């Protein structure tokens, strides 16, 4: 898959989402549907957005026992999304179960990636609250190696870790990176952030951008700026 900008459509309902997407007349952005929208609008919104021609990253971050994750992934695989994800913290066995559950009868499946550490978590919080004693880099890299061992296609990490993930898991192992902010914008709750241009220089495959686009006075212009900065 080519590099791209994925817009995090973190909206409350279908009406808000379509009002946002209707503004894009020239392009069909790759969109991310997260928990808020999926829980409020259900699988139908995925089908509707897909039928409009968008690629979809369904960001539900599954994390449960392997059997439950496998069965849930079987349901999601029927939705024809392009990327889905799990938490790498669920273990290699859980990630393998997710991959098995996603396989469609024709042998195809969506790309499957694993969250390493949320970009809202900094190293100190990870060590103090999650009792992970390694550094952020060590933890992200080990979780990425676990995801690769489970046969996943890549990870969600900060752009700051993308080059190291590629170095240890291969250039073809996808790095999907939230935590992106324009030079002049607010970080909000994100801790490990870069600009789209920095993400590009660091080798991110996909940047996931929410509020800097969705809350911009002109979201289409913000999206175009982001694409220009990231893809060059
Ligand atoms: O608004 P913002 O650009 O911070 O949105 C980032 C999006 O990426 C959110 O939808 C968030 O759930 C998601 N995400 C993240 N960090 C991760 C995984 C997903 O911020 N590790």
How would you portray this structure in words?
There is one protein chain. With 232 residues, the protein is an alpha/beta fold. It has a single domain (4-231), classed as Aldolase class I (TIM Barrel, Alpha-Beta Barrel), CATH 3.20.20. The protein has eleven helices and eight strands. The chain has helices at residues 14-21, 35-41, 43-51, 66-77, 92-102, 123-129, 136-149, 159-169, 196-201, 211-214, 219-231, and strands at 4-8, 30-33, 56-62, 83-87, 111-115, 154-156, 174-177, 206-209. The protein has an eight-stranded parallel beta barrel with strand order 1-2-3-4-5-6-7-8, surrounded by six helices. The model has no long low-confidence stretch (mean pLDDT 95). Cytidine-5'-monophosphate is lined by residues 8, 10, 34, 59, 115, 118-119, 156, 178-179, 188, 190, 208-212.
> What summary fits the major beta sheet?
8 strands, parallel, barrel
Going by CATH, what is the homologous superfamily?
Aldolase class I
What is the CA–CA distance across the termini?
17 Å
User: What is the typical, i.e. mean, pLDDT?
Assistant: 95
How many DSSP H or I helices?
11
- The H-and-E topology, N to C, reads as EHEHHEHEHEHHEHEHEHH
Strand order of the largest sheet: 1-2-3-4-5-6-7-8
Which compounds are bound in this model?
cytidine-5'-monophosphate
Which structural class do the helices and strands define? alpha/beta
Helix content: 40-55%
Brief overview, please?
This protein is an alpha/beta fold and 232 residues long. Helix content is 44%, strand content 16%. It has helices at 14-21, 35-41, 43-51, 66-77, 92-102, 123-129, 136-149, 159-169, 196-201, 211-214, 219-231; strands at 4-8, 30-33, 56-62, 83-87, 111-115, 154-156, 174-177, 206-209.
């Amino acid at each position: 898959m080519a590099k791209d900008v994925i817009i995090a459509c973190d909206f409350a309902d279908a009406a808000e989402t379509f009002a946002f997407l209707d503004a894009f007349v020239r392009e069909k952005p790759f969109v991310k549907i997260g928990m808020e929208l999926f829980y409020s609008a259900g699988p139908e919104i995925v089908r509707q957005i897909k039928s409009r021609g968008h690629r979809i990253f369904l960001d539900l971050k599954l994390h449960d026992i392997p059997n439950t994750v496998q069965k849930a992934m079987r349901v999601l695989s029927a939705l024809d999304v392009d990327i889905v994800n799990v938490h790498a913290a669920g273990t290699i066995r859980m990630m393998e179960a997710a991959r098995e559950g996603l396989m469609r009868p024709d042998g195809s499946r969506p790309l499957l990636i694993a969250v390493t550490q949320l970009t809202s978590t900094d190293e100190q919080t990870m060590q103090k609250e999650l009792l992970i004693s390694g550094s952020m880099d060590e933890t992200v890299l080990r979780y990425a190696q676990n995801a690769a061992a489970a046969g996943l296609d890549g990870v969600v990490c900060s752009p700051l870790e993308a080059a190291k993930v590629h170095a240890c898991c291969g250039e073809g192992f996808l790095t999907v990176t939230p935590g992106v902010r324009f030079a002049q914008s607010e970080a909000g709750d994100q801790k490990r952030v870069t600009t789209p241009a920095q993400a590009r220089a660091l080798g991110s495959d996909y940047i996931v951008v929410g509020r800097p686009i969705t809350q911009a006075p002109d979201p289409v212009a913000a999206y175009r700026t982001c694409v220009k900065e990231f893809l060059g």
